[in-house]
Each structure stands twice: as C-alpha cells, then as structure tokens.
Design goal:
This protein has eleven helices and three strands, in the order E-E-E-H-H-H-H-H-H-H-H-H-H-H. It is mainly α. The chain has a three-stranded antiparallel beta sheet, with helices on one face. A hairpin with a 2-residue loop joins strand 1 (2-6) and strand 2 (9-15). Helix 7 (152-173) crosses helix 9.
Length: 281
C-alpha cells in the first residue's frame, strides 16, 4: 500500500488482486482520500481499501446466474458506492441532481461504463420472486437470533415444526409466491385443518401451531426483506378446549403398589427416601 499526491490531494495506490481481474480491468487503482493531510490520509486508507474490496466482491456476485445472488450483490454494490438500492421506477422519480450523482458514481474504465455497477446504481436488477419454499430458506438466516445457544438437537426440534407448516401449506395451496398469497388461500388452509379436527385426526392445538409457525416464517421474511406486503394472516386460529390433564394415581394404587410391603426393597435408603418424598408431594 502506498500514498501519493495527485495535485493537492492524497491518493491510495494499490495493485488489483488477481481475484478481481475479471471485474476490474486496471492493474493498479488510485483511490482519492479527499484530503491534503498525510496523517488523515493514512487513517482513511484502510477503510477506503476495504470499501474497494467490498465493491469488487459485489461485482463478482453480480455476475452470478442466480437471481437472489444478483439482487443481493446489487444492494451491496449500491451501498459500497454510498447509495441505497432503488428499483428503476424509484430512480426515475429522483430529483435530477440525485440521478446525476448516481450516474457519475458508475466506474467507466476506458470510457466504458461498468454494466454491473450501472445496473446496481440505476435499479435495473429485478427483485427475485420469493415462493413459499424459498421464503423458508431465507427464514433460517433472518431468524438466527432465535437459535443462538441451541444445541444441534434443540435446533433440529426448533426447525421441524416450521418445515412441517410450510410443507403442509404447499400441499394444500401450492408453492405460490408469497406476494400472491390471498385470503382465500389462507381460508383453504384453515378448512384443511378443520376437516382433520372434525375427523378426530388432530387437535385444535396442533392446527394452531401450524398456523403460528407459517405466519412466523412469512412475517419474518416480509419484514427483514422489506417487502411491504399485507399478509392475510388474521383471525385464522381455532378455539381450543380445556387443556387435558393426566389423572393422578389413585390412593388405592399407591397403597397397594408403591407402599406395599417389600415393594421398595430393591432401593437403597437414600433412593427410598427420595421416592417416598415424591409420593408425599
């Protein structure tokens, strides 16, 4: 890494790493540090280089054939250039000076604007369509804080009901895009559970859990991806009856089984005292 002055301002001069040669035709880059102070320029150099690396990584991802990867790369690249990613329609409504600022920020080696950067800064990367199964894939990343500290077995048991809820919904309604889920779809799913409840196959509690887990996946993805969807999730739960409790052991059973002469002879004194204490409480 070296610093050099161009005119009054210091610039960072570095060779382009081999990894980024496919997205950066220059062998050496000069990055303006926007200061004539050597001390300040040294403090800004590492951050400037990190931003350059971030932009190159985003451009590499922007060449991907995967729609999700291209969209995320466009957002990252716009952010690395100091902008928020907006779609083309929103870009067209910007004030002229803001639009010009975005155009001027597009790198243009050899007077040829970079296509990946132009698409990112001018909003020409379409947002990928998110189906139910895709939403579940995205959900795991967006809900990481809910799994912190869980063991492998705890994580498996936490994921299982959410996978089941999405699988059940897809089986009834189909793998629709979440933006296209209608109130009728949710009512069809509810009817599916009502039929099973009436047939004695499941309880209302089981149906409500499926609805809750499905709603959690949809609401989390909608919020974290900033989709702004109005999800038709209200007033779907079933009324649950009184919670069933396991009947206690009868007094006669305790006296004739647990307290029968010789019933606890196989236990040592400490174990026998513990068991009798449990019975009394």
């Amino acid at each position: 890494m070296s610093l050099a002055k161009r005119g009054r301002l210091y610039h960072l001069r570095r060779r382009v790493p081999r990894r980024y040669r496919s997205v950066e035709p220059r062998e050496t880059v000069w990055i303006s540090l926007h200061t004539d102070s050597e001390t300040i320029s040294r403090s800004k150099a590492d951050r400037a280089w990190s931003q350059m690396i971030e932009a190159w990584e985003a451009r590499l991802a922007g060449n991907s054939a995967d729609g999700d990867a291209r969209y995320e790369a466009a957002r990252d690249l716009a952010r690395a250039r100091g902008f928020r990613y907006l779609d083309a329609g929103a870009i067209a409504r910007l004030p002229v000076e803001d639009l010009v600022e975005r155009v001027e920020a597009i790198t243009a080696p050899a007077n040829q604007p970079d296509a990946v950067e132009a698409a990112a800064l001018l909003g020409n990367v379409p947002e990928p369509r998110i189906t139910l199964t895709k939403a579940l894939e995205l959900y795991w990343g967006h809900a990481k804080e809910k799994t912190l500290g869980k063991s492998e077995d705890q994580l498996r048991r936490w994921e299982a009901p959410r996978k089941k809820a999405v699988k059940n919904f897809v089986a009834v309604v189909g793998n629709k895009e979440i933006a296209n889920i209608t109130r009728d779809d949710m009512l069809d799913f509810r009817q599916h559970w009502l039929d099973r409840i009436e047939a004695g196959e499941v309880t209302a509690n089981s149906a409500n859990k499926d609805l809750i887990h499905l709603g959690d996946v949809l609401k989390t993805v909608n919020t974290m991806r900033r989709l702004g969807l109005v999800l038709p999730l209200g007033e779907l739960s079933f009324k649950e009856g009184e919670k069933q409790t396991r009947p206690p052991f009868s007094e006669a059973w305790i006296r004739t089984r647990l307290l029968a002469p010789g019933a606890l002879d196989g236990l040592n004194g400490q174990a026998r005292a513990l068991l009798l204490g449990m019975i009394n409480t």
